[in-house]
Description:
Helix content: 10-25%
Structural class: alpha+beta
Number of strands: 65
Shape: elongated
Number of helices: 12
Amino acid sequence: xxxxxxxxxxxxxxxxxxxxxxxxxxxxxxxxxxxxxxxxxxxxxxxxxxxxxxxxxxxxxxxxxxxxxxxxxxxxxxxxxxxxxxxxxxxxxxxxxxxxxxxxxxxxxxxxxxxxxxxxxxxxxxxxxxxxxxxxxxxxxxxxxxxxxxxxxxxxxxxxxxxxxxxxxxxxxxxxxxxxxxxxxxxxxxxxxxxxxxxxxxxxxxxxxxxxxxxxxxxxxxxxxxxxxxxxxxxxxxxxxxxxxxxxxxxxxxxxxxxxxxxxxxxxxxxxxxxxxxxxxxxxxxxxxxxxxxxxxxxxxxxxxxxxxxxxxxxxxxxxxxxxxxxxxxxxxxxxxxxxxxxxxxxxxxxxxxxxxxxxxxxxxxxxxxxxxxxxxxxxxxxxxxxxxxxxxxxxxxxxxxxxxxxxxxxxxxxxxxxxxxxxxxxxxxxxxxxxxxxxxxxxxxxxxxxxxxxxxxxxxxxxxxxxxxxxxxxxxxxxxxxxxxxxxxxxxxxxxxxxxxxxxxxxxxxxxxxxxxxxxxxxxxxxxxxxxxxxxxxxxxxxxxxxxxxxxxxxxxxxxxxxxxxxxxxxxxxxxxxxxxxxxxxxxxxxxxxxxxxxxxxxxxxxxxxxxxxxxxxxxxxxxxxxxxxxxxxxxxxxxxxxxxxxxxxxxxxxxxxxxxxxxxxxxxxxxxxxxxxxxxxxxxxxxxxxxxxxxxxxxxxxxxxxxxxxxxxxxxxxxxxxxxxxxxxxxxxxxxxxxxxxxxxxxxxxxxxxxxxxxxxxxxxxxxxxxxxxxxxxxxxxxxxxxxxxxxxxxxxxxxxxxxxxxxxxxxxxxxxxxxxxxxxxxxxxxxxxxxxxxxxxxxxxxxxxxxxxxxxxxxxxxxxxxxxxxxxxxxxxxxxxxxxxxxxxxxxxxxxxxxxxxxxxxxxxxxxxxxxxxxxxxxxxxxxxxxxxxxxxxxxxxxxxxxxxxxxx
Length: 956
């Protein structure tokens, strides 16, 4: 086996453009993507669709012309703000549009922006006052024809001519380079040589509207009417087209359609979505609101350059990925998560989380839903054909199915799946919730024989060879040997790793009838004789360049399907060689059922893959023309003051030069890749600003700020959802330097430097001469300053000495004052004593004394009284106390202006550390009065009980 290496896509696919065979699958539904009006920011109705050479799509919308490039929507309204009913893009890139009383074209200007040119202005308003709606636009033989109900306006060589309707036009159609009009009186008319020529026998359709005309063969034309059905025009006669498609149109009305590569016809309906039929009228697909469309009224349909289908709806826009090899069975078919599928007796059966469902395999899938197999409503893990009997592994047990219902329950335990036991014909083993059980095939079908004892672990991943049953549980495997009577496991061995180089075991699978064990993409087999695992180098080589897989399954065609990182891939076997195919399955990433790889290959055109939201049908024969290389566009280039739009079919824009003040630039990117837009990623590099390409991202905008002057080249590439990269798209631009870094500025700077050097040199020489003159003056000035400084220092010294003398004298005075205060306090004490003596003398009864003694006592009393009254020591005391504590009393008064003189005196006595008794004597009050005065002083000073009054006074 030889692997043709490819990880994301087979190189062959990227070398060719798409060549679609016109295949429309009749199994399942294509992927449908709806665009709501809040996404495209336009009106509800979309009447016509077109595509330019770059792949940009255009929609004739009620609010104007819509443009979609795959990344963003743009809206271009008509001058009169009416709805656009039709559009046509010619070879030059002009986008012709028609609306109510207005028609003309959009064309990119020199900066890429679409600008509108009105052709309705060429109409003579004096002759034609109302143009009415323009319904159709055609390009034919260098003419552009705008059709309204009353007339057609023909633009040729810049001149406008008018073609009047014989009675009243309905619509017009271009078929094989011929143009046909329907007139309500004359029937179908061919426009030839600027004349209208009636087609024979077409007036029978005058009482209905024709909405489409298409060629079925050389002389056979299909005519689509609104409500009368489908007709064939052949040999100058009109006959109804007896077909499934005609029945559908009669029932649901039709608004025209489009052909798919001359093999199929899309028919739009008013009431029930669209159908796709072949040229025999057989319906291949039917897509309506129930099957994914957001609206059942389809106004227009369009096949893009990749053969995908776009629908303009009465409310919104829809995209159908018809070119994909995938179709899907989902909610519209009444199935959910699919764990397994199988074909049996003409029916397709699927095991889901809700039970087993089935659908006739040979009948059309376009309408019918899957039906529930009665009795299976529960989690169903598997559905298998065992010896021509259909068995369901269900949460309720092992169920036998026949004729759309469960005939009986073989065993009531929950089961995961069944496999035959080698060397034991007619015996099968089933994995259930309690381990394993043995079943036997009888004439009445499969029967339960016994539960195997000795092992009670369960798993859906197990295989059997001639010697052992192998079970993978978590990241280990178990090797178990059955007893000869199949009732117990005689040997059980747990294995945690296959090689000392790799821990854990990734998957267990059977390939080509042999069991393989996989770890880190290395595949091992077991040798019973040597009792060891050995690597199969050939098989490991197949997976060398593939990400580490977590599951592997071989299908009926010997293809190897594997999962990795929630993604799917396959090694497709062709002529004993394998091709690795990954890209087409990238759309299934994240939708695969975890730990349940379900791939049912019936043949190369019918492969079913179980998903979390249904079932995917894959036709590998369509793959060759499916995957193409995408294109990347730099959609716009913006900088302050201007925006350049690219990708609108304008001439290539040469190197753009922007001023330095506009060096904040913004780029938007796009790719006309409309499949799985959420997985389209961009990478960019601004040379030489970015050293390497950016990481892949879905963001399609990039800004750069404060770019330096210089030449830049913006490179952008895109990677589609299939992993294929585009060629880079480039845009070169130049940021001009600021005026102060311009070449002329540098010349000016050089000239100024030369002049500056000359001026500086001259000034230096002059400065030297001046310096010599000023040096002498400076020396004289320094000498005078020094002399003045010495004198000043002498003066300051003398003042300092005088200050010191005064301070010393003041200290002496203060000391004397303190001494005087102390002496005065002694005198006060003396006077108090003398006053006491006077009181004592008064108590003596002088009358009892003799005259001499009485005289002496009176004389002593008078002397003491005189001494007391003439003593000025108290006033001297107050004077000196105030002198000593003058600064303290000043600060205290400034801080507490409301303090009284008595309180100032008390504060001074307290500061002098006098006792309460001494203060009472000096202030001539009682000790209780001193305490009361102290209390009032504390209150005025705002002190609490815990604060020390004397300490507070000392701090002042």
